[in-house]
Structures are given as structure tokens and as C-alpha cells.
Amino acid sequence: MLELKVDLNERSYPIFIGEHLLSDEGRLKQYVGQSRPVIITNTTIAPLYLDTLLAVFDAQAPLHFVIPDGEQYKSLEWFEKISAFLLEHNCGRDTCLIALGGGVVGDLTGFVAACYQRGVPFIQIPTTLLSQVDSSVGGKTAVNHPLGKNMIGAFYQPKAVFIDTKTLDTLPAREFAAGMAEVIKYALIYDAAFLDTLAELHSELSTLNTQSLQQVIYKCCAIKAEIVAKDETEAGLRALLNLGHTFGHAIEAEMGYGNWLHGEAVAAGMMIAANLACQRGALNADEVEKIRDVIALYQLPTEAPSEMTGEQFLMHMRKDKKNKQGKIRFILPTQLGQCTLVDDVSDETVVTLIGR
Ligand SMILES: NC(=O)c1ccc[n+]([C@@H]2O[C@H](COP(=O)([O-])OP(=O)(O)OC[C@H]3O[C@@H](n4cnc5c(N)ncnc54)[C@H](O)[C@@H]3O)[C@@H](O)[C@H]2O)c1
Ligand SMILES: [Zn+2]
């Protein structure tokens, strides 16, 4: 088992990465405490992993709440339903919530934890690759609003993150690939050598080799933990984690959420950002090819959807949360393994880049 720490003074917490952590009674109880815990999960994950976790807390008569599966349930409506459930069961301020699932369950549970009785402890047990390397770490919690994704939320850190790599055995291949987009993102913003590692480890990762998975997840969590420790509330540095996301969010919004998975849109978005960086002289053609090769190796898209125009990208990107003073802000590579935020890309450049 591997362990690392997110260093945030009194809000510091550990991330454990290993196999069978779902049934690691001693360690789980250490962070959940003595009170009756409440496990929040969804209809896909419950039949797979809920019983294992319930058994751990058997003596504490654990409660569980199962939401339907889907991004649309990361909503104020389900926030309210969970809150009502906690009240009906007289859950007090010492109740620990346990998020068992992907980013949807994690973001929603975290936001309930942040708000219920002004804050109760929670732990994350992420079960998708994306949530293991990204959403479970760093304390961003939120629900969606009809007028925008993740628009209502809070920065609220968990007490611990338990990454059980065995749960990836049941994750659909397409979801695994989508998670790899965020993994590749860490290489592009922080560590060029890690990009080579990802190319080398392709067959091990694709066959879910435990050691390789844990090594890669550890690396991603270490990078995210370091960035979050320096900039918890995204005053600056943390924005770099949005590489590929400005273009990616535009793709998700235009194509309809769910048609392109988040990671797929981010992969195409990173390629567009790499091409733009190349135009600006920050990357050379070989480096862009290298990025394209790794993205393609993991069966991810390397181009914008053919039906999307530059103007459609701009329309969505003008609404981006990162924008300041009406200017679209992009995260672009300055070299392999390093990125920066720029706000001087003209609309014409975007249209030319997209090519239609
Ligand atoms: N908080 C953050 O910092 C942050 C960062 C990135 C993304 N997010 C959010 O995360 C969400 C996306 O997360 P996601 O990609 O994990 O999606 P998800 O939670 O919807 O999970 C994807 C699918 O995989 C299923 N699933 C999960 N674990 C499984 C397993 N072990 N076996 C079989 N099926 C499994 C889920 O039921 C779902 O159908 C979005 O809402 C996004 O906004 C948050
Ligand atoms: Zn993302």
C-alpha cells in the first residue's frame, strides 16, 4: 500500500492507495470514528461494493443512501434528498459521510458534508480512475445548476481518501480511458518524464497491473496534492489543472453532456491547446506529435468534433469560470511538462485553429 499526505495545516489528510482498502477495517474505522456512518453511493456501485463496506461497519449499524446513476443527479434536488435522509435518521454533527463512487457521488457527498449542520466529516472512496486521480483529492465539492455545471459548491476537504485499485476491475474500458486523459494532463502540466512513463506502461495499465496502476495513481495524487497545498482555493497555480478543460468544456456543452465523456473532451481539448502552443512557438511539431501519440495510445480523441466550429467554441468559452474582465483565459503548454495561463488569444486565432 502507498500513502501520501495533502498538506493543509489542520485540514491535512492522508491518501491511501492499495488493494482491498474497502475491507481494511482498522484503517477505515480510524477515520470514520465511532458514530453511525452514512454511506452514499449509486445504483451501479451499490451491487458491486456496498456490502463489503457495510460489513466493515456492521457493529455501528451503518446507514446507506443510493442515488440513481448519472451526472444529472449531482443536483440540488438530490442534495436536498440526502439532507432530509440525514435529518430523518437524526444524524448529528459527528456523523461521518462516506462517498463510495465516482466523481458524481464524491462531489455531491462532499457538498452535503460541507453544508449539513454546517459541516460534518466525510471520507472519499473513489471508484473511477478519474475520481482516484482527480476529483477525490483537493476538496472541490459541488452540485450542478440548470444554468451551469458545478456552479453551487464549496471547498471542503475530506478526512481521508481511500483508493482501492481493485474497484477498477469493474470499470468500463471507456471510463478508464477517460480517466487516463486526466493522468496525461498531469504529465503535460508538471512532469515531462511522466509522459514517457505513460507510453511505456501502456500495456500494464490497460491490463490493470496493480503495481503500475498504483505507481501512476500515486504520481497523479502527489502532483495534485502539491498544487492544492500551494493554492487550495485556486487563486493561481491550481488553475493549471484546467489544461484542456477550456476547450473540453466547450465540447461537452456543445455535444451534450454524456455523449462525449469529460475525459474524452479534455483529451481533445489538450490536443487543441498543444496545437495552439505550437503556433505560438512554445512547443515544436515533434513534441505535439509525442502528445498526440500518447493520447491516441489510450484510445482517446485527438481532435475536436468535426461538426464543431471555432465560433461555437468561442460561444461556450466566453462563459468559462476562469475568465476575467471579459477575456477568455487558456492554459497552454510553455514546454513539455510545463504550462501557463494566457489571455491574449484572439477570436480569429481560435477560428483558424479549429479550421472552420
Ligand atoms: N471535485 C473535483 O475536483 C472534480 C474534478 C474532476 C471532475 N469532477 C466531477 O466528477 C464527475 C465525473 O466523475 P467520474 O468520471 O468519476 O463520473 P461518474 O461518477 O459518473 O462515474 C462514471 C460511471 O462509472 C460508474 N462507476 C463508477 N465506479 C465504478 C466501478 N468501480 N465499476 C463500475 N462502474 C463504476 C458510475 O456509476 C458511472 O456510471 C463530474 O461531475 C465532474 O464535474 C470533480
Ligand atoms: Zn477534468
UniProtKB/TrEMBL annotation:
<feature type="binding site">
    <location>
        <position position="262"/>
    </location>
    <ligand>
        <name>Zn(2+)</name>
    </ligand>
</feature>
<keyword id="KW-0170">Cobalt</keyword>
<keyword id="KW-0963">Cytoplasm</keyword>
<dbReference type="GO" id="GO:0009073">
    <property type="term" value="P:aromatic amino acid family biosynthetic process"/>
</dbReference>
<feature type="binding site">
    <location>
        <begin position="69"/>
        <end position="74"/>
    </location>
    <ligand>
        <name>NAD(+)</name>
    </ligand>
</feature>
<feature type="binding site">
    <location>
        <position position="182"/>
    </location>
    <ligand>
        <name>Zn(2+)</name>
    </ligand>
</feature>
<keyword id="KW-0479">Metal-binding</keyword>
<dbReference type="InterPro" id="IPR030963">
    <property type="entry name" value="DHQ_synth_fam"/>
</dbReference>
<feature type="binding site">
    <location>
        <position position="140"/>
    </location>
    <ligand>
        <name>NAD(+)</name>
    </ligand>
</feature>
<feature type="binding site">
    <location>
        <position position="149"/>
    </location>
    <ligand>
        <name>NAD(+)</name>
    </ligand>
</feature>
<comment type="similarity">
    <text>Belongs to the sugar phosphate cyclases superfamily. Dehydroquinate synthase family.</text>
</comment>
<dbReference type="InterPro" id="IPR056179">
    <property type="entry name" value="DHQS_C"/>
</dbReference>
<dbReference type="GO" id="GO:0009423">
    <property type="term" value="P:chorismate biosynthetic process"/>
</dbReference>
<dbReference type="GO" id="GO:0008652">
    <property type="term" value="P:amino acid biosynthetic process"/>
</dbReference>
<feature type="binding site">
    <location>
        <begin position="167"/>
        <end position="170"/>
    </location>
    <ligand>
        <name>NAD(+)</name>
    </ligand>
</feature>
<keyword id="KW-0028">Amino-acid biosynthesis</keyword>
<dbReference type="GO" id="GO:0046872">
    <property type="term" value="F:metal ion binding"/>
</dbReference>
<dbReference type="GO" id="GO:0005737">
    <property type="term" value="C:cytoplasm"/>
</dbReference>
<dbReference type="Pfam" id="PF01761">
    <property type="entry name" value="DHQ_synthase"/>
</dbReference>
<dbReference type="InterPro" id="IPR030960">
    <property type="entry name" value="DHQS/DOIS_N"/>
</dbReference>
<feature type="domain" description="3-dehydroquinate synthase C-terminal">
    <location>
        <begin position="179"/>
        <end position="323"/>
    </location>
</feature>
<feature type="binding site">
    <location>
        <begin position="127"/>
        <end position="128"/>
    </location>
    <ligand>
        <name>NAD(+)</name>
    </ligand>
</feature>
<feature type="domain" description="3-dehydroquinate synthase N-terminal">
    <location>
        <begin position="65"/>
        <end position="177"/>
    </location>
</feature>
<dbReference type="InterPro" id="IPR050071">
    <property type="entry name" value="Dehydroquinate_synthase"/>
</dbReference>
<feature type="binding site">
    <location>
        <position position="245"/>
    </location>
    <ligand>
        <name>Zn(2+)</name>
    </ligand>
</feature>
<keyword id="KW-0456">Lyase</keyword>
<keyword id="KW-0520">NAD</keyword>
<keyword id="KW-0547">Nucleotide-binding</keyword>
<dbReference type="InterPro" id="IPR016037">
    <property type="entry name" value="DHQ_synth_AroB"/>
</dbReference>
<keyword id="KW-0862">Zinc</keyword>
<comment type="pathway">
    <text>Metabolic intermediate biosynthesis; chorismate biosynthesis; chorismate from D-erythrose 4-phosphate and phosphoenolpyruvate: step 2/7.</text>
</comment>
<dbReference type="GO" id="GO:0003856">
    <property type="term" value="F:3-dehydroquinate synthase activity"/>
</dbReference>
<comment type="function">
    <text>Catalyzes the conversion of 3-deoxy-D-arabino-heptulosonate 7-phosphate (DAHP) to dehydroquinate (DHQ).</text>
</comment>
<keyword id="KW-0057">Aromatic amino acid biosynthesis</keyword>
<protein>
    <recommendedName>
        <fullName>3-dehydroquinate synthase</fullName>
        <ecNumber>4.2.3.4</ecNumber>
    </recommendedName>
</protein>
<dbReference type="GO" id="GO:0000166">
    <property type="term" value="F:nucleotide binding"/>
</dbReference>
<feature type="binding site">
    <location>
        <begin position="103"/>
        <end position="107"/>
    </location>
    <ligand>
        <name>NAD(+)</name>
    </ligand>
</feature>
<dbReference type="Pfam" id="PF24621">
    <property type="entry name" value="DHQS_C"/>
</dbReference>
